[in-house]
Amino acid sequence: MTTAGTTTGESLPPALTAENLVVEYPAGRGRKVHAVSGVGLEVAAGETLGILGESGCGKSTVGRSLIQLPPPDSGTVRLGEVTLTGLAPAELRRARARMQIIMQDPVSALNPRRKVKDLVWEGLSIWGSGDDPRDKDTRIDAALRDVGLDPATVRDRRPHELSGGQCQRVCVARALLLDPEVLICDEPVSSLDVSVQAQILNLLETATRRRGLSMVFIAHDVSVVKNISDRVMVMYLGKTCEVLPSDGMQDEAVHPYTRLLLASLPEAQRGPVAVADPAVSDGPAADLPSPLDPPSGCRFRTRCPLATGLCSEAEPPLRDIRPGHRVACHHV
Ligand SMILES: Nc1ncnc2c1ncn2[C@@H]1O[C@H](COP(=O)(O)OP(=O)(O)OP(=O)(O)O)[C@@H](O)[C@H]1O
């Protein structure tokens, strides 16, 4: 376990492990965006890890690094016992079929010219047992039924003839047909109507529970992440601030940034605790830093009401404060 990692407390090997992921994007004139700076995680078999943080903190970059699209600049990713980073392209493509990704915009994730039945079969025909077409129609229909779609109605339609929610169900059906071990969901409901969001979340929750699938669930919506995840990893400006169980998160969270996020929840969801807490408001400077030139020491310090000189001098390590709960803050 690296200092950047999270602890599952499981004795079985984790389904997915990442250590010290670093991703930097070129930004012209010799500058670079420090999108992800030494992030690690572990996801146990059957566990859902939520990744939470505001826009631009690097959540999607972590998700894409996990599936190696593209690989991180440095760091390692292991799927079960297989180290994905450094695999030859052909081996990587084969191994990657065991990990599927569901994206934010389901309509653009689907080829508009193909029918639903072909879209669902697509992955299997490339990576799986789709070379045996005998039971193809039965399997496509079962996959569609599994995600709550009526095969007779949708199998011959194209994506533009479906709603956003139906397209997301097709994406889920296609991913599940490959029988993956890990599902990466990157903001899977944020482009959908509120009324449809709960249906897709229920679908993902049921599918992962029934199949014992591990899931990494990325979103900026605190209540969505908290509800679907077993544990939550909070990111700020390319770093991990805190990792903790989602149960009782509103009482147990100690990092000032996590508390700030929780304070944004309606009172009915967060409970009455956070408002009088000195650590829930943006600090006096409320200075929004740039990933091009992140603050020294603790990256949250320019917004943190608890910040002291130490926070600008030294980066707080991510350390265990109790089993399953890790925090990177000098003042906790
Ligand atoms: N291809 C790219 N080239 C340059 N910069 C990028 C690229 N992709 C992401 N970034 C930058 O990297 C940082 C992290 O982006 P990322 O999309 O991972 O964050 P995020 O937390 O997922 O945000 P959002 O929720 O808005 O998608 C941001 O500053 C973003 O502008």
Automatic annotation (TrEMBL):
Q: Which PROSITE patterns match?
A: ABC_TRANSPORTER_1 (PS00211), ABC_TRANSPORTER_2 (PS50893)
- Keyword Nucleotide-binding present in the record's keywords: the answer is yes
Cite the InterPro entries for this sequence: AAA+_ATPase (IPR003593), ABC_transp_ATP-bind (IPR050319), ABC_transporter-like_ATP-bd (IPR003439), ABC_transporter-like_CS (IPR017871), Oligopep_ABC_C (IPR013563), P-loop_NTPase (IPR027417)
Is ATP-binding among this UniProt entry's keywords? yes
Supply the name of the protein: ABC transporter ATP-binding protein
NCBIfam families per record? oligo_HPY
Query: Which key words tag this protein in UniProt?
Result: ATP-binding, Nucleotide-binding, Transport
Q: Which species expresses this protein natively?
A: Streptomyces poriferorum
- In this chain the ABC transporter domain maps to 16-262
Under the heading CDD domains, the entry gives:
ABC_NikE_OppD_transporters
The Swiss-Prot or TrEMBL record annotates one GO molecular function as:
ATP binding
Q: Which family does it belong to?
A: Belongs to the ABC transporter superfamily.
